[in-house]
Design brief:
- The protein has one domain (6-286): P-loop containing nucleotide triphosphate hydrolases (Rossmann fold).
- 36% of the residues lie in helices and 22% in strands.
- It has a six-stranded mixed β-sheet with strand order 6-7-8-3-9-10, with helices on both faces.
- The longest helix has 14 residues, at 122-135.
- Helix 3 (105-116) packs parallel to helix 6, helix 4 crosses helix 6 (155-167) and helix 6 (155-167) runs parallel beside helix 7 (185-198).
- It is globular.
- The chain is an alpha/beta fold.
- It has helices spanning 47-53, 84-90, 105-116, 122-135, 139-142, 155-167, 185-198, 211-217, 235-240, 245-252, 256-260, 280-286, and strands spanning 6-15, 21-31, 36-40, 64-72, 75-76, 91-94, 173-177, 203-207, 220-225, 228-234.
Length: 289
């Protein structure tokens, strides 16, 4: 893998409808290999919109316009003949709300493998399911009940199941959208430890509202404000020596930044001017097929 497996070049994302909302504005970022990059910023600043643009998840949404580009190992993911499902296979996505498919624990992990036909035999499939459940530290908790519904797992276990499902198709990059926000502290810590271990094999890009979490697990930090990248740096430099006044204000605590961020919203408007309800499960399964 190249040193810059994923990057954006002058990327902009606009939600269209009764009114246009430019949620991401001319963003150019390089995401380094085998590092965990967190994207932080106030609510509504475009974090999730940026994340979903990295593997073309906006293709499944109406009224979204993309300009600029995303490069995966130096190749465009938008100006390409490669089908979007193949791109999403290489750039996995784990949503904010952990949602098990209405299948067994085993079949949740095997889902993408069956779609892509990436196994040689039942024995091979069994081995792959076990391998990815082990990678997310879930195997020992579920190995004796693989045939039970995934929906019976706890919220923390379900989030790790979603991670295993994404990893099973062997992506180069893993996108994580607020993956601990719905979890209790113990479960969140387990997921954080899992992500820290996984970055030795994957490039991870993670949206978080928690600056404490970014300090704990990030290698690099991107600060987004009203769709613009204000500052991007390694985690120590970002928090100990911020270069931008707005970054210093945001790190310092509640400021008018949080109030101002409501001026432009990253949730795409519907035709009647309302807000679209997020469909995390749809977006994750789209990223696996």
């Amino acid at each position: 893998m190249s040193q810059t497996p994923l990057s954006t070049r002058n990327l902009s994302v606009t939600y269209t409808g009764d009114r246009d909302v430019e949620a991401v504005k001319d963003v150019s970022i390089d995401f380094a290999a085998n590092r965990l990059t967190t994207i932080i910023g106030p609510s509504g600043c475009g974090k999730s919109t940026l994340l979903k643009s990295l593997n073309r998840l906006h293709d499944i949404q109406p009224n979204v316009e993309i300009s600029g580009d995303v490069l995966l190992s130096g190749e465009s993911v938008y100006d390409t003949d490669e089908p979007a499902p193949e791109i999403r296979k290489r750039v996995g996505y784990v949503p904010q709300t952990p949602t098990a498919l209405p299948l067994s624990i085993y079949e949740n992990v095997a889902y993408g493998l069956r779609i892509h036909g990436e196994y040689d035999s039942k024995t091979d499939l069994d081995g792959r399911v076990e391998r990815y459940l082990r990678k997310v530290n879930l195997w020992d908790e579920v190995k004796d009940r693989l045939d039970t519904p995934g929906a019976e797992l706890s919220t923390g276990q379900t989030q790790r199941l979603c991670l295993a499902r994404s990893l099973a198709v062997e992506p180069d990059v893993l996108l994580c959208d607020e993956v601990t926000s719905a979890l209790d502290p113990v479960s969140a810590e387990t997921v954080e430890e899992t992500l820290e271990a996984l970055k030795s094999e994957y490039t991870i890009v993670m949206v978080t509202h928690s600056m404490a979490q970014a300090r704990r697990i990030a290698d690099d930090v991107v600060f987004l404000y009203l769709g613009n990248v204000v500052e991007s740096n390694d985690v120590r430099s970002f928090f100990e020596n911020p270069q931008n006044d707005r970054t210093r204000a945001f790190i310092g605590g509640p400021t008018r930044i949080d109030a101002d961020s409501t001026a432009e919203r990253e949730t795409p408007p519907t035709a009647d001017g309302g807000e679209r309800v997020p469909t995390d499960a749809t977006e994750q399964t789209a990223s696996e097929r």
